[in-house]
Amino acid sequence: MLVKDVMKKNPVTIASGSSVVEAKELMKKHGVNKLPVLDKNGMMVGILTKNDLVKASPSDATTLDMFEVSYLLSRLTVDKVMVKKVTTVSETETVEEAARLMDDYGIGCLPVLKDKLLVGIVTESDLFKAFIFMFGTRHAGVRATFLMPDEPGVLSRFAEVLAEKKGNIVSFVTSDMEDNTRRKVTVRVTGISKAELEKIIADSGYALEDIRNV
């Protein structure tokens, strides 16, 4: 699955010369917490988050009255408080790479570019939805987690046995282990019972960690 499959297209943006008051109103109107910032040529020059706006606002301990605060905020422009160094991603990048970038940089979204132009934005919630889709979470069946040898041909043999029993693999995900001779496998299967899948795993010599009807 690629970023273009899960991103929000044509995201709400704001001009760099707009005031932070306008930014707050725009976020509230569209129910968003992040705004890519564009210059007069339509090129992205930064990103503004609700947290940036909180930092830019006077604290509750300020001696300014509400009119003075409103005046100062109306004069404060987005380009003064936005994050200028923005991590971006291509629309043809994979969703797992997008997730890695968010995790590595501690950020909650990635503007999506195509030929240097903003075409979308992908957020943590978009990746959560992709995760649900990739794991086939909405399909009823049997879910099992077990340890499989990290050897050529092992997966195909497992799939063949499942097919013989009329089982159908809805999702199949593997992850690394400290023991590099094995991989942890999470599989979701339809068409067979929990007992049948448990027996297939046991007969194959795999170490079962968890199995349940879902």
Explained architecture:
- The protein contains nine helices and eleven strands.
- It is α+β, with helices and mostly antiparallel strands.
- The strands form three sheets. It has a four-stranded mixed beta sheet with strand order 1-7-6-5. Strands 9-10-8-11 form a four-stranded antiparallel beta sheet, covered by helices on one side.
Q: Could you give the order of the helices and strands?
A: HEEHEEHHHEHEEHEHEEHE
- Beta fraction of the residues? 25-35%
Low-confidence stretches: none
How many beta-strand runs?
11
Strands side by side in the biggest sheet: 1-7-6-5
Number of helices: 9
Mean pLDDT: 89
Radius of gyration: 24 Å
Assign an overall shape.
Answer: elongated
- Helix and strand content put the structural class at alpha+beta
- CA distance, first residue to last residue: 24 Å
Keywords:
214 residues; 37% helix; alpha+beta; 11 strands; single chain; 4-stranded mixed β-sheet
